[in-house]
Amino acid sequence: MVKSDLINQLSVQFPQYYKKDIQVIVDTIFETMQKSLSEGRRVEIRGFGTFNPRMRKSRLSKNPKTGAVMELKARKTVLFKMGRELKKSLAK
Prior knowledge:
By secondary structure, this protein is α+β, with helices and mostly antiparallel strands. It folds into two domains: 1-41; 48-92, IHF-like DNA-binding proteins (HU Protein, Chain A), CATH 4.10.520. Helices cover 42% and strands 29% of the residues. It is built from three helices and five strands, in the order ααβββββα. Strands 1-2-5 form a three-stranded antiparallel beta sheet. The chain has a two-stranded antiparallel sheet with strand order 3-4. Strand 1 and strand 2 (49-56) form a beta hairpin. Helix 1 crosses helix 2. The two termini are 20 Å apart.
């Protein structure tokens, strides 16, 4: 599912709202999540999961094409942990 599919599904589920309004709401939710994660704060969606920002250490790696050793610098990344309800629904 892509963002446009989510917007289309929500517009079917909530026909009283315009599609443009739903798009603004979805964009605002994702922008707020992105801002919180970039500030180093955790985002939790009950029943779905949590997004935790974390730093990866720098490390050495090999280029698979050339075999040359190169250093990967430290960088920020996001760790996602599934919620209990999502885990149960995927196990079915």
